[in-house]
Predict the 3D structure of the following.
Amino acid sequence: MIYPDLLPITPVAAPVTGWVRVPGSKSITNRALVLASLADGSTILRNALFADDTHRMMDCLRGLGATIEADEAAETITVVGRGTIPASRATLFVGNSGTTARFITPVAALGHGIFTVDGVARMRERPMGDLVRALRQLGVEAESLGANGCPPLRINARGLRGGACRVRSDTSSQFLSGLLLASPRADGEKTIISLDGPILSAPYIAITTTMMHQFGAVVEVSDDEREYLVPGRQQYQPLGAYAVEPDASAASYFFAAAAITGGHVRVTGIGKTAMQGDAAFADVLEAMGCVVTRAADFLEVRGTGELRGIAVDMNAISDTVMTLAALAPFATSPTVIENVAHIRHKETDRLTAVAAELSRLGVRVDERADGLTIYPAPRITPATVQTYDDHRMAMAFALVGLRAPGVVIADPKCVAKTFPDYFGRLSALTAGSQAAPGE
């Protein structure tokens, strides 16, 4: 979609009521792209996400030699993998996609040749040193050409030999996921990956291991989930067709629209057995006083007209921190968000950005090293919200404008990173009440 530089948000005149379908999960789409490209054969991804992050992943995998055909209108991607990395040289541009950077680096190490991983200016500020060190322990000649272990990275690849490595788990779970995705194709007998530090975003690691199993690989996890053993010389299996779950992080904004306006919204295609941890954002809303219905093929949130503040550890669902932050000023008591220091290393420093923009809107907020305390706001000050080229800042803060006049979103086009049609779907939902399917 084409968006203006500044997008005013129109407050709703009535509770937001209806149903919505959200795009496929970015996390699942990008993992499936990697797994399918490492398989020997063809896999069709259905309900795939088409956004900047997945385009970057497709481009990088093509650069490594996979054949990928995308049909955006049909929301399908056909991946023909060769079971190997055919390319001997490539510059892999990841844009600002941390997922792509942290997955494609170990995958490139499976090849034989020289590969460079680089991105936009912000990507060159995002940490990759822990991953590079882990790859070196596995015999990979890899180095950071940037400052403080950041991209660009150069990999002089001679295949992944396997062995043992340790990787920090308190900066990004994507380091572990990237190593896991590549390890079945290692030349050695096995790869053992041990974790140092607290485990961040554990549900995303579970997505990785679940999908590896789905594509036919064996991975063994210790009881304390701090050591992963992956037998080498495995072959991923093409699946013919693979259905991508709707994006639970994207769903959080529509659930929040119901909560903030006292309406009810159903998101179809994602249910009580969802693979994605961010589906647990519905639990957060339930704790704030909403009514949640969980079915096999949908989740529904019903606002009650009153939100109470809560204290919540959001480490496992940190992509929804900003969604909660947008609701918090309308709660009847303070909201405390804890244990999310790692989101300072995302597309922007998300704790500082949220605190700055809530303050701009006249909301009292206390910023801590690992979280925020947000206080009820008797009144929202009209303002233009800066989004820092961060898609989640734009999507979350638009919710404030559903209740308060005068909210304008700067640079709304940044939502193209994961949800290009976000404002169109939000507008369609808020335009009037709709009956949910089957009602």
Summary: The first strand starts at residue 6 and ends at 8.
